[in-house]
Amino acid sequence: MTCREIDGVIGSHSGDSTLSREAAEHVAECESCRRLVKALDTGHTSLEPSESRLRQIQAAIKEDLRPVRPLASSGVFLLAFMLISLAVVAIGSLLLGVNGWNALSTIQRMTIFAALTASVFLLAISVVRQMAPGGKPSISPRLLLLGILAGLILATAVIFQVRHETAFVQDGLACLRTGMTYSMPAALLFWALLSRGAVLYPKLTGAAAGGFAGLIGVSVLEVGCPNLDLYHILVWHLGVILLSAIGGLSLGAAVDHFRRRSIRGHSRF
Asked: What mean pLDDT do residues 104-113 have?
C-alpha cells in the first residue's frame, strides 16, 4: 500500500481510528504516515471540551431551568380574546353613545360590522396560533393584516360617500384620539394574554396583536361617531388600525431586542 492510498484510507476513516491490517502495517513502516496518523488523532482529541468547560456549560443550563407552565388550549385563548374585545366595545359604546350606529343605514351597518367582526375573528385566530411553537398559520400573519386593512378600505369605499366637512383635521384628530384611547387598553390586555404563551416572533405577533387592538378601537368609533364622510372614515377611523399595528410592531421589536441581549449575555460564561 502506498502513501497516497493511505491518505484515502485515513480520509474515509475520519472520526474512526481503526485501520485495516494492510494499512496498519504500512503506517508502522512509514514514518511520515505514522506522524500524520498521530497528528490527526491528537487534533481529534483536542476538540473535546475540558472538564471545567463542561461544568460551566452544565451550570449555565441549570441556571435557566424553570418549571414549564402548561399552555391552555387554543379555544380558551380565543374565547378570552373575544371576551376582551366585546367588553372594550361595550364599555366604549356606553361611554360614547350610539350616535354612529343610529346614523348608519341598515346596509351600512350590516356591511361594516360584518367586515369588522370577520376581521377581529381572523386576527384573533392568527394571534392565538402564534402563541404555541410549532403551530403553522393557514395564512401568513403579514398577508392577513394587509388583507384585512385592504378589505376594510374597499368596504368603506363602497358603502360611504364623500361629504362636505368644515373641520376635517380637527374632528379627525378627535376621533383618532378616541380610537386609540380604546385600542390601547385592549392591546395591554392582549399582551397580558400573549405573555402566557411562547411567542417565537415578537415583532410579527406584536404587529398582529396591535392591528387586532386597532380593530377594537375602530369598532367603538363606528358605534359612537356619527360622521359618515368617506375620507373621515378612511383616514381617521382606519388610521387607528395602522397606528396600533405600528405600535405593536415597535413593542415586539423592543421585546425581541432585549431577548437577544439576554441570550447573548447568558452565552458569555
From this structure: 95
Distance CA 199, CA 130 (A): 6
Q: Rounded to the nearest 5°, which phi and psi values hold at 153?
A: -60, -45
User: How big is the CA angle at 176 (ends 172 and 178), to the nearest 5 degrees?
Assistant: 115
Q: Which residues, in sequence order, are bridge partners of residue 229?
A: 161
Instruction: Find how far residue 76's CA is from the centre of its chain.
Output: 19
- Note whether 232 and 175 are within 8 A (CB): yes
Does pLDDT of 263 surpass 90? no
First vs last C-alpha separation in the chain: 49
Give me Rg for the CA atoms of the chain. 31
Question: HEC profile for 1-15?
Answer: CCHHHHHHHHHHCCC
How far, in Å, CA of 78 to CA of 85, rounded? 11
Judge residue 47's burial from the number of C-beta atoms within 10 Å of its C-beta, 0-12 exposed, 13-18 middle, 19 or more buried.
exposed
Residue type, 180: M
Torsion of CA 203, 242, 101, 187, to 10 degrees: 30
pLDDT of residue 15: 46
The residue assigned the cell 410549532 is: 134
What are the pLDDT digits (tens) for 157-196?
999 999 888 899 999 999 999 999 999 999 999 999 988 8
How many other β-carbons are positioned within 10 Å of the β-carbon of residue 93? 17
Residue 128 has phi, psi (to 5 degrees) of -60, -40
